[in-house]
Write a sequence for this structure.
């Protein structure tokens, strides 16, 4: 019989879950009137944590696609938008269009809508993925970029469906029966529950036949093909999985904001997602939460500091740092933070052994 | 690889879908063309002429920017994503020069109105110089350390550089849109009046300047690439860096000069953009940059004549497309990006592109 071992991944998941649950519990119990945001000097609020959780889901998908399968996507925000709009449109069917009354206003309908959104987005990714994934490198990057642009322009222009540039409002909060997953303190648990589940699923995918196939494609597509890996199938699969994860995150975002508009899903968003994935390290699932958290907290800090120092408000000046971080990371640690830390530790150990 | 000949095999259902979609799209396009031109003409000849003029002007700007993409891609196999922002820097260079010229009193009014030729020339020189300089430093700082890294790495670095330049410009110049101070003789919207079909069609002076100047620049560039020592070195480096180095070519120097040339062209395009369309702001280069990339791909990336053709074609498609398809003019960007995706999928070599090999993608 095999002995049950707790590997670093399982340990990581458990630690992450426990720590996050404790954080969440602070806001619900509020010991000594403390709130979560007090712990971090009000830099990290429960709002920020929810956003980090939502984007972690997208970035995990991007890691699978870019880090493992080696296929670039500069249009991931497009899939994110599809999920958000699917939820937004379906969940407001009854209130906006008076359609499906009695079905579309039940508590389970938004949950079903999330699922429908994921399936539709996955189907879309499958259909476009077949031709697009035959492209490689720069060409693939530009094709996905074009696709992302088309989705973001259409979401602003098809105003009867999407509410145009003003967007859709009045998206109901999620609830289970009578139990509302709101205020944010409760929604936090849903989002991070989903994020951790996604991390677990992704870790399993990575360590399965699919993960091995994807890594083989990344290393050398021709070699993988010759060794009997159906490379086209696995590349499309990776795109479909990442698109469905982005769609799930989009739905969670729509219910969190209770509104969707085209602005958060543009090209900038796609680039931010890639940045987060690159910062955390593309070929590590654990890089996803790390990269998202680092970039979020960095940009929050910068925004408040820039406002305090230069007395300017409203601008998105912290984006300069995004650009700079992106260039510096690519120059100095193109493998991302996690791998670089690992390499650094290995080097340190080797030096110690060398000295001894 | 789409260009490799595959052995004959069973037709996949997916390929049938692809073919049917392709034929369907082509058929619809022909039907729309017939409807709009012959069946029930929506626009008169004068309107089509206006679209054509606008398209040609836009297209020649795209073509100039596209050449920069093509030159850099040809040599480094990388998409210089910040190229559009170099154009923005050039546009600002011209803007400040013209502002300065407006404020210097000369010959009764100001320098700009008294000596328009000198003022515009100075604006072009300033825009070109600053853009060329930015191109040079961009390559030195953001791209050179990444030479030889996997494809994705310089692309992401380029995107980072683009975000940096845009936001640095916002921090320096503010977020407001600024009006280009054209000399009086080049007032925007004024031009020769043609009468077509009894209606007035204006051929703007700024537009004519844009088209003529960009054609001249393109010819000059073509001569430079085909006839000069530097051009020969550029072609050699794009063929094979190692062998070029063995032949005694200073590869790093050639790459630097390529970035200077493509930056200069983008700078000229930026000043034209400002003179003709009037508005400059920190984000002004982004969309033209991506469109110009589309144009470069359309013409066949790596090919200079291809970039010129692709730019003009894209400009025309953008201004005529919505009218032909009978859709909102707000959707012209969808057409441009749709073309980008379709060309990449179906004909990644572009109109006149050379055959793609594994290492060029």
């Amino acid at each position: 019989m095999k002995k049950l071992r707790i590997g670093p991944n399982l340990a990581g998941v458990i630690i992450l879950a426990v720590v996050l649950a404790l954080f969440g519990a602070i806001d619900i119990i509020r010991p000594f009137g403390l709130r979560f945001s007090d712990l971090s000097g009000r830099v990290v609020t429960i709002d920020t944590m929810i956003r980090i959780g939502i984007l972690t889901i997208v970035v995990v998908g991007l890691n699978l696609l870019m880090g493992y399968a080696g296929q670039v996507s500069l249009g991931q925000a497009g899939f994110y938008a599809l999920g958000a709009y699917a939820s937004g449109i379906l969940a407001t069917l009854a209130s906006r269009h008076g359609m499906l009354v009695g079905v579309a206003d039940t508590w389970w309908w938004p949950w079903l809508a999330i699922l429908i959104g994921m399936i539709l987005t996955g189907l879309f990714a499958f259909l476009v993925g077949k031709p697009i994934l035959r492209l490689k490198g720069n060409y693939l990057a530009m094709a996905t970029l074009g696709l992302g642009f088309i989705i973001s322009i259409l979401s602003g222009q098809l105003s009867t469906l999407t509410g145009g540039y003003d967007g859709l409002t009045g998206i109901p909060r999620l609830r289970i029966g009578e139990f509302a997953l709101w205020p944010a303190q409760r929604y936090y648990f849903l989002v991070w529950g989903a994020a951790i589940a996604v991390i677990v699923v992704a870790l399993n995918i990575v360590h399965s036949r699919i993960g091995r196939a994807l890594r083989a494609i990344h290393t050398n597509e021709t070699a993988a093909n010759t060794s009997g890996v159906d490379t086209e199938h696995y590349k499309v699969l990776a795109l479909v999985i990442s698109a469905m994860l982005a769609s799930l995150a989009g739905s969670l975002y729509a219910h969190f904001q209770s509104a969707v508009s085209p602005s958060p899903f543009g090209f900038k968003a796609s680039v931010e997602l890639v940045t987060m994935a690159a910062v955390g390290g593309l070929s590590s699932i654990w890089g996803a939460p790390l990269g998202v958290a680092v970039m979020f907290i960095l940009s929050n800090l910068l925004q408040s500091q820039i406002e305090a120092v230069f007395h300017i408000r409203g601008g998105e000046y912290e984006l300069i740092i995004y650009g700079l971080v992106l260039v510096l990371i690519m120059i100095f640690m193109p493998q991302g933070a996690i791998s670089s830390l690992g390499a650094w530790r290995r080097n340190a150990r080797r030096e110690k052994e060398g000295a001894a | 690889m789409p260009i490799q000949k595959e052995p004959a095999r069973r037709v996949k259902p997916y390929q049938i879908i692809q073919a049917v979609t392709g034929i369907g799209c082509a058929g619809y396009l022909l039907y729309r063309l017939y409807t709009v031109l012959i069946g029930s003409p929506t626009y008169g000849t004068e309107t089509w002429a206006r679209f054509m003029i606008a398209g040609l002007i836009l297209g020649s700007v795209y073509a100039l920017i596209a050449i920069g993409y093509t030159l850099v891609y040809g040599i480094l196999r990388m998409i210089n994503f910040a190229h559009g922002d170099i154009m923005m820097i050039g546009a600002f260079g011209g803007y400040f020069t013209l502002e300065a010229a407006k404020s210097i009193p000369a010959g009764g009014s100001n320098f700009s109105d008294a000596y328009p030729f000198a003022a515009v020339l100075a604006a072009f020189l300033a825009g070109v110089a600053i853009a060329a300089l930015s191109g040079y430093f961009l390559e030195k700082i953001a791209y050179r350390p990444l030479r030889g890294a996997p494809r994705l790495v310089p692309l992401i670095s380029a995107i980072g550089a683009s975000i940096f330049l845009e936001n640095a410009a916002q921090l320096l110049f503010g977020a407001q849109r600024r009006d280009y101070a054209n000399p009086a003789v080049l007032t925007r919207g004024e031009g020769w009046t043609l009468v077509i079909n009894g209606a007035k069609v204006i051929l703007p002076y700024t537009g004519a300047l844009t088209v003529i100047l960009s054609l001249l620049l393109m010819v000059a560039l073509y001569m430079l690439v085909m006839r000069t020592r530097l051009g020969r070195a550029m072609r050699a480096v794009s063929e094979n860096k190692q062998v070029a180095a063995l032949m005694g070519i200073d590869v790093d120097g050639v790459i630097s000069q390529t970035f200077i040339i493509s930056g200069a062209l983008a700078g000229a395009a930026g000043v034209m953009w400002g003179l003709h369309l009037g508005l400059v702001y920190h984000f002004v280069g982004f969309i033209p940059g991506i469109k110009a990339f589309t144009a470069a791909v359309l013409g066949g990336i790596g090919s200079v004549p291809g970039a010129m053709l692709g730019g003009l074609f894209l400009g025309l498609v953008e201004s005529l497309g919505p009218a032909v398809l009978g859709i909102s003019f707000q959707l012209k960007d969808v057409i441009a990006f749709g073309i980008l995706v379709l060309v990449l999928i179906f004909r990644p070599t572009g109109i006149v592109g050379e055959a793609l090999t594994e290492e060029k993608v």
Observations:
- Strands of chain A lie at 168-169, 175-176, 179-180, 259-260.
- The interface with chain B takes residues 66, 72, 74, 130-132, 134-139, 141-143, 145-147, 149-150, 153-154, 157, 268, 271, 274-275, 278, 315-317, 319-320, 322-327, 330-331, 334 of chain A (CB under 8 Å).
- DSSP finds 16 helices and four strands in chain A.
